Amino acid sequence: MTLLVATVTGAAQESDGPSCYSALVNEWWCAQYVQDRQDEIVDATVQHLQITVAAVLFGIVIAFPLALLARRLPRLESTILGVSTGIYTIPSLALLPLMVPFTGLSMTTVVIGLGLYALTVLVRAMLDGFRAVPADVVESATGLGYGPTRLLFKIELPLAIPVMMAGLRVATVSTVALTTVGTLVAYGGLGNLISHGVQRNFRAELTTAAMLCVLLALLLDVLLVLTQRLLTPWTRGVRT
Amino acid sequence: MSLFELTWQYLTTGSNWTGNGGLLDRLAEQLLLTVTALLVAMAIGLPIALWLGHIGRGGFLAINISNIGRAIPTFALLAVLVTADWPGSDEFGPYGRAGLATLIALGLFALPPLITNAYVAVREVPPDIKEAAVGMGMSGAQRFWRVELPLALPLVMSGVRLALVQVWATATIAALVAGPGVGRIIVDGFARNLYSQGIAAAIVVAVAALVLEVVAAAVQRAVDPVPRASKRVRGGAMSAAGPTL
Description:
Structural class of chain A: mainly alpha
CATH class of chain B: Mainly Alpha
Largest interface: A-B, 53 and 53 residues
Order of helices and strands of chain A: HHHHHHHHHH
Number of domains of chain B: 1
Largest sheet of chain A: none
Structural class of chain B: mainly alpha
Radius of gyration of chain A: 23 Å
Helix content of chain B: over 70%
Oligomer: heterodimer
Number of helices of chain A: 10
Helix content of chain A: over 70%
CATH class of the largest domain in chain A: Mainly Alpha
Number of strands of chain A: 0
CATH superfamily of the largest domain in chain A: MetI-like
Distance between the termini of chain A: 57 Å
């Protein structure tokens, strides 16, 4: 069967002489492929990035109030953590179909589904972050007359950033990888290329897409590390 | 009929469960895959990680393997394995189509949480306890078996739990590359516009995942030698949490 499929794709792709991505050669890596299908690859990468960024932002927007709530009401903490861990346990390929009755076959389905996974990591990281703020610093700030809001944004949040950012990095990197599964509802960014590559036994396509996924994850990770350095100038030189 | 009703209908029709390649068949297949892959990964990963933790070497690798594992999409690795000449997508005994490729991918993705947690678990045994063990004249092996391992067990088990979640999720994704398991029913449903079928199978997978997690949590509690104290240890697990699903 593989052979048959390979022949069909081969016929469509061969131009002058067998290129390295023709079905006869079917190399794992082929620069010619990247050149010829540049538009397709760029589109898929852009979609991948959109889904990832939207999902992580969605996760942050939901996780922050939840973390604040869990901190204020310790009774709710175990419930919030329990429910989010429960969601995390559900495989992505099962979570996406469960969203379909509500949001259909759309990008929203993927964004919300992946956002829910990011949420679990983020809520934990935020709570750990707040816990990492030294109690004496909070006390001094209160003594200086800081109200609850100003205390949160001027003192606690900045001091919680290192721990929170660690969580954000974990959430972002795994969201990049998970986005590929969105191909089930046709919104998987680079996952769509991987899926197509498997169906047509098109090696160059799936390796290129897979490598771009990993690269994208590394790139976003580096960006987050740089952002963290900018946000926490006081930690520089005092490595902990 | 609404999608919910159709889904309910699919779930309550007996033949969808018992038929050839039905939900029960696929569920058994996926459970078999999960258990096999997890046991193999544990047999390989745990001794190495525990030993590294005991001698206190290789920490960089043990910690970073989780970060690397997270960045690699499970789907991509499965795709590469299935498309390659070996292991390819051939039938593999009771494991079904693309069974070997799926098992390899599952095992590989189970390793990072197992290794990182087991390493951290042994490393984080309080130094004063280790010192006391040395002071009592315990040998290296005695220290490991009688002191470090029992104290590390809860965190090791939480690694096994994470690995289980990861393996179950990856086994589901295997269907995207025409692999075995319940995921196949989901993917088939979506490919043929039978969304109720896809959603029904997704519910089965999700419920099974939650049941596995509850069982694993119970096992973890059972092996905890000092149930109340383990909360302290768990603080260090953040770096190890969060597999790619």
